[in-house]
Amino acid sequence: MKVSVLLSLLGVSFQIVAAAPAKHQKAAESKPSVFLLAGDSTTATQAANGGGWGDGFKNFTLKAPSFAINYGHNGATTSSFISGGDWATVLGKVEAYAGNSTVYVTIQFGHNDMKLTNYTETFKTNLRRMVADVKERNGEPVLVTSLSRRNYNANGTIADTLAPWAGYAIEVAEETETHYIDLWKNSVHYLEQIGQPASLKLALNDNDRTHLNVPGSIVFGRMVSDLLKWEIPAIGEVVKENATLSEQIWSGVATF
Ligand SMILES: *[C@@H]1O[C@H](CO)[C@@H](O)[C@H](O)[C@H]1NC(C)=O
Ligand SMILES: *[C@@H]1O[C@H](CO)[C@@H](O)[C@H](O)[C@H]1NC(C)=O
Ligand SMILES: *[C@@H]1O[C@H](CO)[C@@H](O)[C@H](O)[C@H]1NC(C)=O
Ligand SMILES: *[C@@H]1O[C@H](CO)[C@@H](O)[C@H](O)[C@H]1NC(C)=O
Ligand SMILES: *[C@@H]1O[C@H](CO)[C@@H](O)[C@H](O)[C@H]1NC(C)=O
Question: Which ligand ends up closest to the CA of 122?
Answer without folding.
Answer: 3
